[in-house]
Amino acid sequence: MTSRSSDAANKKRVIFCDFDGTITENDNIIAIIKHFNPPGWEPIVDDIIGQRKSIQQGVGELFRLLPSSMQSDVTDFAISNARIRSGFDELLAYCRANDIEFYVTSGGIDFFVNALLAPYGIPADHIFCNGSDFTGERIEITWPHPCDDDCSNDCGMCKPTIIRRFPTEQYTRILIGDSVTDFEGAKLADIVFSRSHLTTKCVELGLPYHEFNTFHDVIAILQQEEANVR
Prior knowledge:
Blueprint: E1 12-17, H1 19-23, H2 28-36, H3 41-49, H4 55-64, H5 71-81, H6 88-97, E2 101-109, H7 110-117, E3 127-133, E4 140-142, H8 159-163, E5 171-177, H9 183-188, E6 191-194, H10 196-205, E7 210-211, H11 215-228
Parallel strand pairs: 1-2, 1-5, 2-3, 5-6, 6-7
Antiparallel strand pairs: 3-4
Helix pairs in contact: 2-5, 3-4, 6-11
């Protein structure tokens, strides 16, 4: 567990929230690949989770297994298969009511991230994710948010780079996530909400964290943290 220090009362809160397996109940990239089941995908996923391959390398390899001619099928499946985690609407309302900046920082892909977030009114410049290119023979993932000079993890969509834009002297930085794309960001955050692989990594690294199941859990702890600094 972690608590905000006394000087946190003078800082603005900002949330960096993962998408796959966090805002959604399932990991959409893994769900897509499992559903279409191209030969050779399992070892790539194992290597990503085991950090033997970088996220950028592994995710690029996974989608390169699929032909671009499947664009409609892949997009339709991703959108129809995803389920938004309970309490997401309420978390956004809590952030608006309490002047908390909310950013989606996703290792997911634009063709499903943007479509699934469209009903929620999150500004486009508050959504960071990877891009996609269906013009070639195989699906190519593009990387518009690369690592800065302080990161060499080949993240793809580099969450630490985004987080560093919000100086710790001015912001209480809150990360919500579940998996390998959140490992590096968790090391920088003041407050970590975790599930799944991220919880395992926090335990391994000795990082304080709050485990959550729904966004109602996140709201309750944020309210408690706020009360602690009044």
